[in-house]
């Protein structure tokens, strides 16, 4: 199998290398990819949309349908992870610690309940407490990472950034919290319900803006039709529409990243894990 | 010989991506462990992403963010030459492709977790053995 695979790979690679003869040179401004549509975008986007970042303008306006369904794909990935892995059955063996004394209790019967207020703390069997340096550094870093993520989303129209990037940065800050403390710390602050609602809300914002443009009398996702809703700044209405869409994308991506992470590391139980 | 060398130098970017793609493809075909196959798939996707981004590059051009386009009113006075900015279209396509690749990787990992929960292995040959054992038991 290894040999056949090697032969197939060499054959494919050889064919592709032979094909590079016809491809344009590296950085050639007259290459076919950089002549027809790209020139139109570069020359007309600023006057049509008032958005200097061409990538965001193409992403959220000219190719709005593509990005909308891309967001739907991300949402479906989160849904698939949830449906594949989520496990609501309680674990057989559970460990509790009495907080004031540090005594450990081992429950072998899953039906036993512990009703002694807050003195008992659920324990992970394999979990090792993180180092104090790691915890402190992450605690200081996380708010700054989150502010940076919000900046990347909000300035997506003017500087490198946008909904996908900002959403991933925000999600990674939450994942960093789960890694540096434990998964329960994250689940306590950011519940599964909250994440599920936000994942759906992000897609809803995107599709809702599209339908809003339709209700105002334009085509689906035609942000120019939203101008009567924001009378103070009619010139930038397309930029504002893109910002709204990017916020929706950012929320959906953030929530889905955390859902995927939480389900995979804890095998769907949301109690123990990294 | 010197012809081939000149060809490689002119198009070394494509050669690098094809080699990277071959590594990924080989891992997907020949590796026994499902996790390693997934890593191969990610290398393959990275090669495609680099290929697209390199297509958008132009000599002497800068990032596709219009300079002086932030003022609003003054934006109309600025003359924009298409040769000054790199092609934004491949960047847009790859931006969404990266996010989708992360999402598909997440789903693939979830499937791997389920397979491991059921068969206690991710090695393909052992997996095939255990699946056939299970079928004969039933």
The tally of structural domains of chain A comes to 2
Tally of DSSP β-strands of chain A = 3
Shape verdict of chain A: globular
Low-confidence stretches of chain B: none
Main sheet overview of chain A: 3 strands, antiparallel
Helix content of chain A: 55-70%
Shape of chain B: elongated
Question: Please, could you describe this protein's structure?
Answer:
The complex is a heterodimer of chains A (274) and B (138). Chain A has 274 residues and is mainly α. Chain A has two domains: 27-88 and 129-265, no CATH class; 93-123, no CATH class. Chain A is 59% helix and 5% strand. Chain A contains nine helices and three strands; from the N terminus they run ααααβββααααα. Chain A has helices at residues 2-19, 37-49, 54-62, 64-85, 132-154, 163-180, 183-189, 192-215, 237-265, and strands spanning 94-98, 104-107, 120-123. A three-stranded antiparallel sheet of chain A has the order 2-1-3, with no helix packed on it. In chain A, helix 3 (54-62) packs across helix 9, helix 6 (163-180) crosses helix 7 and helix 6 (163-180) runs parallel beside helix 9 (237-265). The model of chain A has no long low-confidence stretch (mean pLDDT 86). Chain B has helices spanning 2-10, 12-30, 34-55, 88-119, 124-137. Chain B is built from five helices and no strands. Chain B has one domain (2-59, 81-137): Helix Hairpins (Orthogonal Bundle), CATH 1.10.287.3510. With 138 residues, chain B is mainly α. The mean pLDDT of chain B is 86. At the A-B interface, helix 1, helix 2, helix 3, helix 4 and helix 6 of A face helix 2 and helix 4 of B.
